Amino acid sequence: MDFRQELIQIIDKSGAHPAWGVKHCFRVYHLAKELSNHLTLDDEVLYAAAMLHDTGKYPVYALKNIDHALRSKGVTGNLLQQMMFSPIKLPKVLDAVENHMYYSEPGRCDEAVYLRESDILDNLGNIGLMRLFSLVGQDELIQTPENAIDRARLFADALPDKVSTKAGKRLAVKRREETLRFLAGIKRQTAEYAWL
Fold first, then answer.
1. Does pTM top 0.90 for this prediction?
2. Of 55, 164, 50, nearest to 104 (Cα)?
3. How many Å apart are CA 78 and CA 110, to the nearest integer?
4. To the nearest 5 percent, what fractions of the chain are helix, strand and coil?
5. Strand ranges (DSSP E) for the chain?
6. What is the C-alpha separation between 35 and 128, in angstroms, rounded?
7. Residue pair 121/171 in contact by the 8 Å Cβ criterion
8. pLDDT tens for each residue of 54-103
9. What is the 3-state secondary structure (H, E, C) of 74-106?
10. CA end-to-end distance (rounded Å), the chain
11. Are 61 and 67 in contact (CB under 8 A)?
């Protein structure tokens, strides 16, 4: 079986919520390629990292009280070694997976930088809002629509500053504006969130 197809099957069998599932991984991969189109990234490294960066969050791999980025790094290392992935490329994949979260510093390789950028950006704008609201009642931090609104506001305020590349910053501004327009509309239409 093709390496890429095998990674898709791993995600499909993992019990991943759609907010973190294969379509999220595809968006992160393709956005990373778009943002880095002026560079030559290793496509195998970027693809593997994009597809496996959230595995530590998936029910079959998650461990309670373990940061999902660190868990994802361990799962990724095990899976790719079983698949006979290049041992020369593996450290770059692991760097990207470990450092993909907005609260982490960007990784050392370009693939890690652009994976992190695109993952952050997938939490902003219309797609970020869709993901947040799909998690209501499914995530310990987002039990109610009000929690999703609070999280959207927090992401709009904090995440654009976590993006470091020029292309990423331009897109972060646009997606932040999308989020703020939505929040302003919801506020107007719900008597300042009283009827949410």
1. yes
2. 164
3. 23
4. 65, 0, 35
5. none
6. 18
7. yes
8. 999 999 999 999 999 999 999 999 999 999 999 999 999 999 999 999 99
9. HHHHHHHHHCCCCCCCHHHHHHHHHCCCCCCCC
10. 48
11. no
> Which residue type, as a one-letter code, is found at position 84?
M
Name 146's Cβ contacts closer than 8 Å, sequence gap at least 6.
Answer: 193, 196
pLDDT in tens, 136-181: 999 999 999 999 999 999 999 999 999 999 999 999 999 999 999 9
Distance CA 56, CA 19 (A): 14
Encoded tokens for 160 = 């654009």
Residue 139: strand pairing partners: 142
Tokens encoding 187: 């506020």
